[in-house]
Amino acid sequence: MSTQQTEIKFAYWVPNVSGGLVVSKIEQRTSWDIDYNVKLAQLAEQNGFDYALSQIRFTAGYGAEFQHEPVAFSHALLAATTKLKVIAAILPGPWNPVVAAKQLATIDQLTKGRIAINVVSGWFKGEFTAIGEPWLEHDERYRRSEEFIRALKGIWTTDNFSFHGDFYRFHDYTLKPKPYNQNPHPEIFQGGSSRAARDMASRVSDWYFTNGNTVEGIKAQIDDIRAKAASNHHKVKIGVNAFIIARDTEEEAKAVLQEIIDKADPEAVNAFGDAVKHAGKASPEGDGNWAKSTFEDLVQYNDGFKTNLIGTPQQVAERIVALKAIGVDLVLSAFLHFHEEVVYFGERVLPLVRELEKQQEAKAA
Ligand SMILES: Cc1cc2nc3c(=O)[nH]c(=O)nc-3n(C[C@H](O)[C@H](O)[C@H](O)COP(=O)(O)O)c2cc1C
User: Fold this and answer.
1) Omega within 30 of 0 (cis) for the link into 177
2) Beta-carbon neighbour count of residue 112 at 10 Å?
3) Which of 17, 51, 121 to mutate to test the pocket of ligand 1 (most atoms within 8 A of CB)?
4) In the chain, where do the E strands start and end?
5) CB atoms within 10 A of CB 248
6) Ligand 1: does its nearest atom lie under 6 Å from the Cβ of 209?
7) Whole-prediction pTM value?
8) What is the pLDDT of residues 256-311, one digit of tens each?
């Protein structure tokens, strides 16, 4: 008996901060303003994208001089679309779980179950200092994030919720209304790939988001997380970041990548490189996001070139299906010119992905 395979899903980064998704002075026909973003969300849902991911930044970093707040911004995108799910990034510390639970439950009601959350744990010490937020050491940030997620789930699903953690406490609290989505609750994504991040994913997150990487690098993470999750009787899905450059010819695509790197803003990239030393590198094992990133990798601020979705539609589609084969459930994409390239992706790449998936399915049957 053949089982129906699940199609790989696609998300895009919401450019709700200025400067696009590469730290480069190359021309980017991408804007962080609301009109541009509403149109982008509409184009994305018409072109096969399932999710949009908004970003949380309180101050400039890697450029990103202007930043819209992601929960409010995500709601505006949801109000302008009908199918797209929007994942709002939230940083424990500035947000506490009761505010997040209430805000997101309301948005979930208003949008009939289309909000999700990306719990991020912090890598930018300068930002925390600027907003007067205590800076916890690496693994403590994840301990707090895990409590945040446990509290959020508890509030969303349980009446008379009580919780006694080191960071958060609740006493007999009942949220009304609960989220629209009770199946079981709005999806919880997380960013981060250190040991602490992976362990958190293997216990509490619905989705694990990681920076771009090679197929081998991604596979090693997936195998590790899935083995741990299985021993915890937990299931976690995997999303991988990629900066997609799909062009009619491979030469064209590679030339765009080269131009992005040649026109990189060295000051901003190096400042970013310094700031991210507080991420993976600061973990006890010294590994995780950005721990091994080169200058060129950092030009895309989540290592998106490394995933190598750069080439013709056929090459990009084949590499996406290869990611699916190692257990990736979702590709989180960024583009140079979002409007134009989301449409190109939907028209030229996605049909090839679906075709290759069918072939893979037929082979497996
Ligand atoms: C896909 C993705 C999205 C992220 N979005 C944000 C964000 O919007 N704001 C933020 O401060 N950190 C964001 N992060 C950073 C992570 O939450 C985490 O702090 C960082 O990856 C360091 O992880 P590590 O130390 O566990 O390796 C994101 C990470 C990933 C992989």
Assistant:
1) yes
2) 11
3) 121
4) 9-13, 51-53, 85-90, 115-119, 161-164, 169-173, 188-191, 207-210, 237-243, 245-246, 310-311, 330-334
5) 11
6) yes
7) 0.97
8) 999 999 999 999 999 899 888 888 888 898 888 888 899 999 999 899 999 999 99
Measured in Å, residue 283 CA sits from the centre of ligand 1 at 14
Q: Which of 16, 55, 74, 123 to mutate to test the pocket of ligand 1 (most atoms within 8 A of CB)?
A: 123
What is the tens place of the pLDDT at every residue in 196-226?
999 999 999 999 999 999 999 999 999 999 9
Q: Which residues contact 245 (CB under 8 A, 6 or more apart)?
A: 253, 256, 257, 309, 310, 311, 335, 336
Ligand 1 centroid from CA 309, angstroms: 21
Please indicate whether residue 283, judged by its CB atom, sits closer than 6 Å to ligand 1. yes
Dist CA 61 CA 307 (whole Å): 23
Ligand 1 within 6 A of CB of 145: no
Which position has the token pair 């009761």? Answer: 98
Domains of the chain: 3-364 (3.20.20.30)
CA of 92 to the centre of ligand 1 (A): 12
